[in-house]
Amino acid sequence: MTELAKTFDPAAIERRWYTHWEDKGLFRPQRPNAEPWTIVNPPPNVTGSLHIGHALDNTLQDILTRHARLKGKDALWVVGTDHAGIATQMVVERQMAARGEKRTDLSREAFVARVWEWKAESGGEITRQLRRLGCSMDWANERFTMDEGFSRAVLKVFVELHRQGLLYRDKRLVNWDPGLGTAISDLEVETREVRGSFWRLRYPLADGSGSIEVATTRPETMLADMAVAVHPEDARYTALVGKQVRLPITGRLIPIVADEHADPALGSGAVKITPGHDFNDFEVGRRAGIEARDMLNMLDAKARVVQTADGLIPAEFLGLPGNDAKAEQDARRLVVARLKEAGVLLPHVDKEGVAHDAEPRVIQTPFGDRSGAVIEPWLTDQWYVDAATLAKPAIEAVRSGAIKLVPKSWEKTFFNWMENIQPWCVSRQLWWGHQIPAWFDAEGRAYVAETEEEAQAEAGAGVALTRDPDVLDTWFSSALWPFATMGWPDAADRTLGGRYPNDVLVSGFDILFFWDARMMMQGMHFMGEVPFRTLYLHGLVRAADGAKMSKSKGNTVDPLGLIDRYGADALRFFMAAMESQGRDIKMDEKRVEGYRNFATKLWNASRFAQANGIGGSTTLEPPLASNAVNKWIVAETVATVQAVDLALADYRFDAAANAIYQFVWSRFCDWYLELIKGLIQPQLAPDGLTYETFQPAVDETRRVAGWVLDQILVLLHPFMPFITEELWHALAPREHELIVAHWPMADARALDPAATQEVERLIELVEAVRGARAELNVPPGARIALHTGAGSVPATIAPYVERLARVTLTPGEASGARAPILWGAETFALALEGVIDLEAERQRLQKSLAAAEKERDSLAGRLGNASFVERAKPEAVEKARADHAEKAADAERFAAALARLG
Question: Taking the complete model, does pTM exceed 0.85, yes or no?
Answer without folding.
Answer: yes
